[in-house]
Design goal:
489 residues, alpha+beta, Immunoglobulin-like, 5-stranded mixed β-sheet, 8 helices, globular, binds zinc ion
Length: 489
């Protein structure tokens, strides 16, 4: 009765509307949080709202997806487990370190599966200028503190002052906006459209609709952010008790919440239960052990001071090749924890001309018809404590001679700040603008991967960067093969 809850799913519009007090800070132009500008919420006309609802419905229809409370995804996601398969199943993956970026800044979002490209599977088409947090920095910090303390037992790092470098695989929670911006009905405080069982995909973006509550309700908002991030890891709703203290309960209030430490029965009050087969591995059926799953996915927390090891296998350093040659770069990357990310940097005659985050953990890159020049290929890896390791080779193509190898000082720099504006001379994209600094200072890294400055990517070659995840979601099955491969070291 004293259940002053905001509901994730649609249930009680009266309760929700009580909490929709406007935040005065949202009205000030040019607001900044942690030194970076914050995107303001757009004013949507009735017609625009109706269009977004129609778009969202069309997206569900097109993909055959379901909305089950605040979890959106394909029917298989909510399927009942096969009891026989469950008995035989064991958790087979090593824990991986992870980073969650709480994005208080907002920014332009597009459909897709890659948080580092500001993509979300909740979006259907076009670009959505998504708003940032409408509260104060102190309120954001209160949310961050709660969020951090709940994740402290696990191998998960938190980022909030700026986006992590794009090559680091990170999950993102958008801390702003209202459900209507995505075309969803009011009455939910968050949504996850990329719930993948067992956290096999590491670049999810989810939403905590902070403007649907009051920015002062920092516990509510922190719980929501934890809850939505956890849905993206595959965790489901638990605990039928009305006055639950668990983060994965389908309803939220201002009281502090914790992860359940034992097998707790599901709560399907708001819809189907996602990833039951995975939960069954830990509880044997009908329940979820949230803590055990988080430990299995991320491992026990602890310091990590060991940098990743990178070794470029081909080409060999100092190799001389004729102009117009094709080349394949292959690297081996290892680290003391799973979860490491890396990128390829290409320098031509001393200028950084391309930078390719390995979004699907590709270890091979192919290029055809290299023009004459001195090329330096750097593969740089980064872990979740931002330890950096790199290897590099220099290759002389055409008339280039070995004596020109000059600037070898910039590998293994700090925190993946990337190059500062590659000079364009050879690029076919004006000034190779794609080679921007990857930390960028503001939310969301720029997409550095699609620009092909100067060098033609050899699409006909199987060794080219592996295909990136498309706009649709096959996280449950399609990518598992890829991950299984990269796990063999
Ligand atoms: Zn939920």
């Amino acid at each position: 009765m004293n259940y002053n809850a905001v509901l994730w799913p649609v249930a009680s519009l009266t309760l929700v509307s009580l909490l929709c007090s406007p935040a005065s800070a949202a009205d000030e132009p040019g607001r900044r949080l942690f030194g970076a500008p914050v995107v303001e919420a757009p004013e949507l006309s009735e017609q625009e709202q109706a269009e977004r609802r129609a778009d969202f419905e069309a997206m569900l229809e097109e993909r055959g997806w379901q909305v089950q409370g605040d979890v959106v995804g394909p029917a298989e996601l909510f399927a009942a487990p096969d009891p026989q398969a469950t008995q035989a199943a064991e958790w087979q993956y090593e824990p991986h370190r992870a980073t969650i970026f709480l994005n208080f800044f907002g920014g332009p979002m597009t459909p897709g599966t890659n948080s580092a490209k500001m993509q979300s599977t909740c979006l259907k088409g076009g670009t959505l200028e998504y708003p940032g947090f409408n509260g104060t920095e102190a309120q954001a910090l209160a949310i961050i503190e709660t969020f951090q303390s709940q994740l402290a037992p696990y191998g998960v790092r938190l980022a909030y002052e700026q986006a992590p470098p794009p090559e680091l695989p990170y999950a993102m929670v958008m801390m702003g906006g209202t459900p209507g911006l995505l075309g969803m009905q009011n009455g939910v405080l968050g949504v996850s459209c990329s719930s993948d069982c067992g956290d096999r995909w590491w670049r999810d973006a989810t939403f905590a609709f902070t403007a649907a509550a009051s920015a002062s309700q920092t516990n509510t908002l922190a719980t929501t952010a934890l809850h939505e991030a956890a849905h993206a890891f595959g965790l489901a709703h638990i605990d039928k008790s009305f006055n639950s203290g668990y983060i994965m309960h389908p309803y939220v209030d201002q009281k502090p919440r914790v992860w359940a430490q034992d097998c707790i029965g599901y709560n399907d009050a708001t819809g189907g239960i996602n990833c039951q087969s995975t939960h069954d591995i830990f509880c044997g059926g009908g329940a979820q052990n949230t803590h055990a799953e988080l430990l299995a996915y991320f491992g026990v927390n602890g310091p990590d001071t060991e940098a990743p090891t990178v070794s470029i296998l081909t080409p060999t350093d100092g190799q001389e090749l004729p102009a117009g040659t094709d080349i394949s770069i292959e690297a081996d990357i290892t680290d003391n924890f799973e979860g490491v990310g890396w990128k390829l940097l290409i320098y031509q005659d001393g200028n950084l001309i391309d930078e390719r985050p390995a979004f699907v953990f590709e270890r091979k890159w192919g290029f055809s018809k290299l023009p004459a020049g001195t090329y330096r290929f750097v593969v740089q890896a980064i872990d979740h404590d931002r330890n950096i390791g790199a290897d590099e080779v220099t290759v002389f193509v055409g008339n280039a001679t070995p004596e020109t190898g000059s600037d070898t000082d910039s590998t293994g720099g700090t925190d993946g700040t990337g190059g500062t504006g590659g000079t364009g001379g050879t690029g076919d994209t004006a000034g190779t603008g794609g080679v921007t600094g990857v930390t960028g200072g503001t939310a969301g890294a720029t997409d550095t991967a699609t620009d092909t400055a100067g060098i033609d990517e050899d699409d006909g070659c199987g060794c080219t960067s592996a295909p990136r995840p498309a706009d649709s979601l096959w996280l449950l099955t399609g990518l598992l093969g890829l991950f299984a491969r990269r796990r063999r070291r």
